[in-house]
Write a structure and sequence with these properties.
This protein is α+β, with helices and mostly antiparallel strands and 291 residues long. Helix content is 54%, strand content 15%. The strands form 3 sheets. A 5-stranded antiparallel beta sheet has the order 1-2-3-5-4, with no helix packed on it. The protein starts with a strand and ends with a helix. The relative contact order is 0.13.
């Protein structure tokens, strides 16, 4: 901690301390083994993360970096380049476990079946009413998008499972765990921050989270194509990415309130943007097949 503190600022649970020689950003330490996370990245020659100047028992101290003037889409492009670099340097190949593949397939199939029944039951219940709430009316006007997404999820799952019968190894990478624009600093070459959820996992985990969070802020088409240029997916990986992206969550129309209406608007808006992205990808794949 600097001895000649000039300015002391509190932002939520974080602190910004400025002295005559440095400016530090101090945040609570939410994971006890953060030193192992940084060591893993260091061992794999990954430099695209903000290194702490000090790790204490209860806090992490980082150099303070000013925000840049890049747009959200520009920032996303920079993030995706750093994500591909992270994945290229941490990729490992593991043998496919047929039992785990079957378990994932059966669990996801049950989830798809449950969602289909849930939304049909909700629709039937609303249509049986004489007077509808605003949230119910809005849901009925847009529910066809949910059914389209559920149907497409089922098709993707079957294609993925069929493909996995011939796959012997799969790739795993070191995942950020909560990949979004607010957890990336676009200064210099770019730095990932907030690595408390970092773990080894599927190759599509981080980009799925990024797209679901920022579907409206970024150009998903150009961002994904840039990503695929740097870290190309295998067919089964792309199928699983599409599946995890398009599979809708369970949402209710109740209680009818302004907050609920905003939630429903965002829910269907996300589905619309993801549908546009997937249609563009399908068109590209069909053109490539004709060549």
């Amino acid at each position: 901690m600097p001895s000649d503190v000039i300015k002391y600022t509190i932002e939520k649970n974080n602190k910004i301390i400025e002295s005559s020689q440095e400016k530090l950003f101090i945040k609570p330490k939410k994971r006890y083994d953060m030193d192992l996370v940084y060591q893993y990245l260091e061992d794999h020659n990954v430099g695209s993360y903000l290194k702490p100047v000090e790790i204490r028992e209860d806090v992490l101290c980082f150099p303070y970096l000013k925000k840049t003037t890049l747009t959200e889409d520009e920032k996303a492009k920079k993030l995706i380049l750093n994500l591909s670099l992270l994945q290229n340097r941490t990729t490992t190949y593991v043998s496919v476990d047929p039992d785990k593949i079957k378990e994932f397939y059966e669990d996801t199939k049950k989830e798809i079946s449950y969602l289909s029944s849930y939304y049909h039951d909700l629709q039937d219940m609303i249509e049986g009413k004489v007077y509808m709430l605003p949230s119910e009316y809005f849901f009925l006007r847009n529910v066809s998008m949910v059914y389209d997404a559920i149907h497409y999820s089922g098709e993707l799952l079957e294609k993925w499972y069929e493909k996995m019968q011939e796959v012997k190894t799969t790739r795993e990478v070191y995942c950020h765990g909560k990949c979004e624009l607010s957890h990336f600093l676009d200064n210099e070459n770019g730095y990932f921050i907030s690595l408390e959820n970092a773990h080894i996992g599927r190759v599509d985990e981080d980009i799925t989270n990024l797209f679901k969070k920022h579907y409206k802020d970024i150009d998903m088409i150009s961002t994904y194509r840039l990503y695929q240029h740097k870290y190309p997916y295998q067919e089964e990986e792309e199928l699983l990415f599409y599946l995890n992206l398009v599979l809708p969550k369970e949402i209710s129309c109740y209680p009818c309130s302004l907050k609920k209406m905003e939630e429903l608007v965002l829910f269907f808006e996300q589905m619309k943007y993801i549908k546009i992205f997937l249609l563009e990808q399908q068109e590209k794949e069909q053109k490539n097949q004709k060549k």
